[in-house]
Specification:
Number of strands of chain A: 11
CATH topology of chain B: Mth169, Chain: A
CATH architecture of chain B: 2-Layer Sandwich
Oligomer: heterodimer
CATH topology of chain A: Rossmann fold
Radius of gyration of chain B: 16 Å
Distance between the termini of chain B: 6 Å
Number of domains of chain B: 1
CATH superfamily of chain B: Phosphoribosylformylglycinamidine synthase subunit PurS
Helix content of chain B: 25-40%
Shape of chain A: globular
Order of helices and strands of chain B: EHEHE
CATH superfamily of chain A: Class I glutamine amidotransferase (GATase) domain
Structural class of chain A: alpha/beta
Helix content of chain A: 10-25%
Number of helices of chain B: 2
Largest sheet of chain A: 9 strands, mixed
Chain lengths: ~220, ~80
């Protein structure tokens, strides 16, 4: 299984994410710069968290328009699995690979803590190792995680079961408590929580491991 | 030519920054002010043959980068 992690100027979760891939999936991921012209052949591409381009203009806006994102979009449309974590989620919405947008938290505070989330479905590439409606503890660390989309699109997201994770209680103003979201084809996932920071009980929870285990499980079976 | 793009959150989008400003104004005793909304202004120089061309160009870059029309609306001023 080949995993690629894309690093933008201001990305800061690339090494934690690489560590999670190494520990849980058991392979060394390829970390590439966003200045590369192409993404190498990958089964899973991860856009990690951070503050790409200093969050200038809007979170993820500048990164979403890097030339390498043309290749990411192409690969996403071909069905390659993609996860965007935190800033990666913001980049995917700015690129319109996922619907909606992530606004400033309604409290205007940067929130960094372990929180409880519900897994909406377990029949996807990313969640097969969870149970449906399983409650998990994974940390969030963001200022712009307040998911917003127009009413019509929100209804279609719910009708198509595109919600991956929901906050157990309102935390940042997100509509329908959405914390994680799939595209329609279920091969692209955006997550505000950081599963790569929840793979070892030393940090208080290892509930994030199953995202990576689910991916491994898909290619192992 | 000078171009200015004004970008504001759509009215249905909650603006906690605007609310925070409004609450600070209340603390200053300004009780006659309501519905504060914060937006942004981007100005630039543009080379174009005429105002209409400039407007079209600015509209294009606003849609493709400067504004996110999922959450924002914009207006353009060429002068």
């Amino acid at each position: 299984m080949d995993v690629t992690i894309i690093r933008f100027p201001g990305t800061n979760c690339d090494l934690d994410t690489a560590n999670a891939v190494k520990k849980v999936i058991g392979i060394n991921p390829n970390i590439i710069s966003c200045k590369e012209s192409n993404i190498p052949k990958s089964d899973l591409i991860i856009i990690p968290g951070g503050f790409s381009y200093g969050d200038y203009l809007r979170s993820g806006a500048i990164a979403a328009r890097e030339p390498i994102m043309d290749d990411l979009e192409l690969k996403g449309n071909q069905g390659v699995y993609i996860i965007g974590i935190c800033n990666g989620f913001q980049i995917l919405t700015e690129r319109k690979l996922l619907p909606g947008s992530l606004l400033k938290n309604s409290s205007l505070k940067f929130i960094s803590k372990n929180i409880k989330l519900k897994v909406d479905r377990n029949d996807t590439f990313f969640t097969s190792k969870y149970k449906t409606n399983e409650i998990v503890k994974i940390p969030i660390a963001h200022h712009d995680g307040n998911f917003f989309v127009d009413r019509k699109t929100l209804n279609s997201i719910e009708d198509n079961n595109q919600v991956a994770l929901r906050y157990m209680e309102p935390i940042n103003g997100s509509l329908n408590d959405i914390a994680g979201l799939y595209n329609k084809d279920l091969n692209i996932l955006g997550l505000m929580p950081h599963p790569e920071r929840a793979i070892d009980m030393k940090t208080g929870t290892n509930d994030g491991s199953k995202i990576f285990e689910s991916a491994l499980n898909f290619f192992a079976t | 030519m000078k171009a200015i793009v004004y970008i504001r959150l759509k009215s249905e989008v909650l603006d906690p920054q605007g609310q925070a400003i409004e609450s600070a104004l209340k603390n200053l005793g300004e009780n006659d002010i309501k519905n504060v909304r914060q937006g942004k202004l981007i100005e630039m120089d543009i080379q174009a043959d005429n105002k209409k061309d400039a407007e079209e160009k600015i509209e294009k870059i606003t849609k493709s980068l400067l504004a996110n029309t999922v959450i924002e609306e914009y207006s353009i001023e060429i002068g």
